């Protein structure tokens, strides 16, 4: 009886272990913040998210280097993985075009200043 109980317990562990190994992929939704489109990707948990970024760029027709990706308000780096970010199925990543600017000094020369 002891042996049978062990066997049953061992079988359960094997099933749980097998289930974990089958679940090596995660489904991720990428939400385009500019036009509200959503693209769904399935990626291995331990693959760098750079692969997803490049594929997304191809799908929307832009160089992925011009895009910024974030999850839970934090920017995603190319070398991060779904596993490292603890992404679960249907996690949503936001994609935006990189915003430039903010460095231009818009001062008015005295010759164009209009007094009121």
From TrEMBL:
Ranges where the record places region Disordered: 1-23
Domain Ubiquitin-like: 24-102
Low complexity: compositionally biased ranges: 1-16
InterPro entries: Rad60/SUMO-like_dom, Ubiquitin-like_dom, Ubiquitin-like_domsf
Pfam families in UniProt: Rad60-SLD
Name of protein: Ubiquitin-like domain-containing protein
Lineage: Eukaryota, Viridiplantae, Streptophyta, Embryophyta, Tracheophyta
């Amino acid at each position: 009886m002891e042996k049978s109980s062990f066997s049953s317990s061992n079988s359960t562990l094997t099933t749980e272990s097998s289930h974990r190994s089958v679940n090596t992929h995660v489904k991720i939704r990428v939400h385009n913040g500019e036009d509200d489109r959503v693209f769904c990707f399935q990626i291995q948990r331990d693959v760098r998210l750079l692969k997803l970024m490049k594929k997304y760029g191809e799908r929307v027709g832009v160089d992925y280097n011009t895009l910024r990706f974030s999850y839970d308000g934090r920017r995603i780096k190319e070398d991060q993985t779904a596993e490292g970010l603890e992404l679960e199925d249907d996690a949503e990543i936001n994609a935006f075009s990189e915003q430039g600017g903010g460095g231009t000094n818009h001062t008015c020369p005295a010759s164009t200043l209009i007094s009121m």
